[in-house]
TrEMBL record:
The EC number(s) this enzyme carries: 2.1.1.222, 2.1.1.64
UniProt-recorded name of the protein: 2-polyprenyl-6-hydroxyphenol methylase
Domain of life: Bacteria
Molecular-function GO term, any one: 2-polyprenyl-6-hydroxyphenol methylase activity
Keyword Methyltransferase on entry: yes
UniProt keyword annotations, A-Z: Methyltransferase, Transferase
Statement: the UniProt record of this protein carries the keyword Iron: no
Domain called Methyltransferase: residue spans: 34-155
Biological process according to GO: methylation
Record-linked SUPFAM superfamilies: S-adenosyl-L-methionine-dependent methyltransferases
């Protein structure tokens, strides 16, 4: 994990350039950001979503395990308008051992952050912490990419970086993702190669690798229920289209289970 964090530290200054968010992600999450609501943004990266939430009037506490990413976010914060900058706080933290006296209206894990919980134990610990951090009527909302059994990784169209028809007179990015999958542990090793082109010449190259864990839809529903969450919405993309075979994303809107609902959940 330390090596993985270091790689994100290393690319933090160019992260926004290399890895744009999927279409619709910002609109989906900011639709919940009403004036004055409190939001915990887990795995905030360089702060792209956190700033948009704050601009919508939300009070945002944004955390990331990468110190480099938080440093980049704080540099952006210094350039923000005063009103937005007063509404967002960045902190280096791991959700599994994060401590905060506040309770939140919403907890977000956007951009597949949940996939970085590499074992069932990690997933359970994170969900337990999130449960403690939510207000009684709060919502936990997160997205992950669909497992390869639902949408093969080489068939995905909505991820970052690829330019099918690059302009000849502007800067553009070419990327290649190389996957190795351990289906027994559900662990995906991804090697990302990036080339930044200017006028058809390569000006910069970057490479980094990371591990994630895929989760099957039925497995996720069971996990959420067993940890005291009830699913209110389950979507296949950020436009809230129903999940189906071939959907590239699994997006969950959840709440804390009631006492009656908890009666059927695992202890």
């Amino acid at each position: 994990m330390a090596q993985q964090i270091q790689q994100y530290d290393n690319i933090s200054s160019v992260y926004d350039k290399l890895i744009p968010e999927p279409d619709g992600l910002f609109d989906f999450y900011t639709s919940f950001a009403k004036e004055g609501v409190s939001i915990l943004d887990i795995g905030c990266g360089s702060g792209r979503l956190a700033f948009q939430l704050a601009q919508n009037g939300a009070i945002v506490h944004a955390i990331d395990i990468s110190a480099g990413m938080i440093e980049t976010a704080k540099k952006k914060l210094a350039q923000c308008d005063r009103k937005s900058s007063e509404r967002v706080h960045f902190e280096v933290a791991d959700i599994k051992d994060f401590h905060c006296v506040s309770r939140f209206d919403y907890v977000f894990m956007s951009g597949g952050v949940f996939e970085y919980l590499l074992t069932p134990k990690d997933q359970a610990e994170a969900l337990q912490k999130i449960k403690q951090l939510l207000k009684p009527e709060g919502r936990f909302i997160f997205d992950i990419i669909s497992p390869p059994q639902v949408c093969a990784y080489d068939k995905r169209q909505k991820d970052f970086g690829n330019t099918a028809h690059p302009p000849k007179d502007h800067q553009y990015i070419k990327s290649q993702n190389i996957f190795r999958i351990d289906h027994y542990k559900q662990i995906v090793s991804t090697r990302c190669l990036f080339e930044i082109h200017q006028h058809d010449k390569v000006t910069e190259k970057y490479e980094f690798q990371f591990l994630t864990r895929y989760t099957l839809p039925t497995e996720m529903f069971y996990l959420l229920k067993s940890r005291g969450f009830a699913v209110l919405g389950f979507y296949g993309d950020y436009n809230k289209e129903p999940f189906k075979r071939g959907s590239e994303f699994m997006i969950y809107v959840t709440k804390l289970s009631s006492s009656k609902e908890n009666g059927n959940a695992l202890k």
